[in-house]
What does this fold into?
Amino acid sequence: MTQTLTKPDIRRPGDIDAAWLTAVLQGQGVDAVVGSFEARNVGTGQIGESVRFRLTYERDAEGAPRSLVGKFPSPDETSRQTGIMLSNYLREVRFYQQLAPKALVRTPRCWLADTNADGGEFVLIMEDLAPAEQGDQLKGVTLEQARQVMEQAARLHASHWGDDSLDDLPWVSGSAAAPPSAVTPELVGHLWQGFRGRYAERLQPYWIEVGETLTRNWGRYTHIHDGPRCLTHNDFRPDNMMFATPAGGHPVTVLDWQSFAYAAGATDVAYFLAGALPPDVRRENEAELLALYHRHLTELGVSGYPMADLRGHYAQGGFLLFLTAFFASMVVVQTPRGDDMFMQMLGSACDHIADHDALSVLA
It folds into this structure.
């Protein structure tokens, strides 16, 4: 007889066995027994490790998945410590435990979400979204995919638009209850100067101007938003999404909820459009995509947010893409793809900042 656990504990991928996977399924009401499985790493995450488990059943049952995807702390200690320092691991588990059911945005079904007290160890077991495929920051998206993402952005933001109850949750970035941020002006300045040194040969003069202006005026930047707040993703880019393929899958599913915040929704929109579309395509279609996002917000019940305000907040949104590019590159394990991705994000952010004269708001 196969022995099962009464409750699955927190484990790293190498310690997972068939009994543990059986406990995950039975904990969600699926009376199946896993006989064996294959495990293989998937994705390109910089902070966490993702593994696909292909399941073979000793006893099958209705609703039993053929495969699952698990997310775990990064095996790289530098990246893992970053995840702990920034509360990324803890935050993502809390999202799936408490916010995902009401967030309206399409997310994976979560079979298990658990973490220890400090967030240093965690486990997420989610539905396998294949044959949908992960987006690629370096390849970008099609215009039709961008339109679909605008709908998902509006759904996410409308779900908690002006919801000050988020201010009571200490694990929500930007909330009133959140502890002082580990991202201090000194840390930001230090990482920017380190980034300048490491990538000096790849940086264009305007990119350096943006970095110097942003880090010099950090206090002003952190208080720049003067409009309504909502639940935001804060790393809203193709790598953190799954897109349908000709073989099937949901049109768009949003992943990687490690950085979400109570902040400006338009920042997610700018972060995505600036980074996921070539600059000329973005410029040509920006007005249409913003109007589409605004229309979805309105249809979902958001009122009192005129298009003029959206445009103003959107113009400032490229700074977060710029910040993420240089900050993340210095606190996670360095890889060739990571280097290329961070350069692409930085350059795209600067194109957006220049197009909207955003540096003027920091002067």
